[in-house]
Amino acid sequence: MQAIGPERRPFTAEVTVSRFEMRGHRFLTLILRNVNDHIAAERRISRLEREAEYLREEIRFLDDSAEIVGENDALKNVLRSAAQVAGTDSTVLILGETGTG
After folding, report:
1. What element of type H or E holds 16?
2. pLDDT in tens, 16-50
3. Which of 5, 17, 32, 53 qualifies as a cystine partner to 13, CB 3.0-4.6 A?
């Protein structure tokens, strides 16, 4: 519903109508709530959800492309050792010559 606010500008409103009786008289109450802030918040949430999904996709891409490449037997042994503890909370430190990655 469109309503006119105190500043004489229209706003989108949510309406609640209630009925009650008091001393034999029937009354109606009409409550108008400005929902523009709610609509703006929903739009912002939607935009942030799309942005979060985009960032999740970027992270998946980075995870998929961040592989250690090499055919050296020493490197294969290191990767095999790291794989043995990969499912635990252990920390693995790999040291190598400068410039080797």
Report:
1. strand 10-22
2. 999 999 999 999 999 988 888 888 999 999 999 99
3. 32
For residue 69, give both structure tokens: 């490449």
CA 31 to CA 9: how far, in whole Å? 18
Can you say whether the dihedral through the CA atoms of 83, 89, 94, 99 is positive or negative? positive
Rounded to two decimals, the pTM is 0.42
Tokens of 34: 């400005």
DSSP code per residue over 39-51: HHHHHHHHHHHHH
Q: Which helix (H) or strand (E) holds 63?
A: helix 36-65
Question: Does 90 or 35 have the greater pLDDT score?
Answer: 35
Which tokens is 28 given? 């109606």
